[in-house]
Amino acid sequence: MKKLIALLAFAIIFTDGLAQTKSDVKATESNYSNWLFVQSDKAMQYRFKLVKKEGDIGFYQVQFKTNFDDRIFCKHPTCLGYLLVFGYPDLDNQKNIETSYKFYNTYKEVYTRPELIPIRLSFPDGSKRLLKQEGFHYTLAGSADEQPAINLFGNCVDDILDGKPDYHRCKPYQPKFIESQTIVLQ
Question: What's residue 126's pLDDT?
Fold first, then answer.
């Protein structure tokens, strides 16, 4: 009888722990924005989560994934995956800080960028940036109207084509894909 009670107690504790784990995962997921397409014609997506705030600077975690189920996913046999240049503004909005990536079709996971990205949220003129479920938005000084911040990030996405490593639109224009500095995910 004692063994049965101990087994039952273990089962209750174990299933309660599972329920808490599932709710913790759901809570963590809800802190992120929705998955957004980096560019409308490629199946690369990203999302953001505010991790901390110091003054008028927000520090955001970014996750990337390939949406293998979307109709725009490149299914041609010569398409090996996607290359991505992710660029965010420096705190003075003077230049983009860019990172090059290669996401091969064999990489099925969500990639979390290890470094947080700092984004200025408030400006001396009273304008503001904010993260909503639909992505980053901004308000102009003296206005409460929120507009999508479509030009906040400088990104480029294109296909990685078998046998054509230099055939993509992410060069010579900005942002520029830099092969020697690329993070490769396979």
Answer: 92
State the burial class of residue 84 (Cβ atoms within 10 Å of its Cβ: 0-12, 13-18, 19+).
Answer: buried
Contacts of 112 (CB under 8 A, 6+ apart): 61, 62, 63
Sign for the pseudo-dihedral over CA of 133, 114, 165, 97: positive
Residue at 112: amino acid letter: T
Report the C-alpha gap between 30 and 155 in whole angstroms.
25
Give the model confidence (pLDDT) of 62-98 as tens digits: 999 999 999 999 999 999 999 999 999 999 888 999 9
Do 64 and 113 touch, CB atoms closer than 8 A? yes
Ramachandran region, residue 141 (left: φ > 0; alpha: ψ -120 to 50; beta: rest) = beta
DSSP state of 181: G
Q: What is the DSSP string of 108-136?
A: -SPEEPSS-EEEE-B-TTS-EEEEETTEE
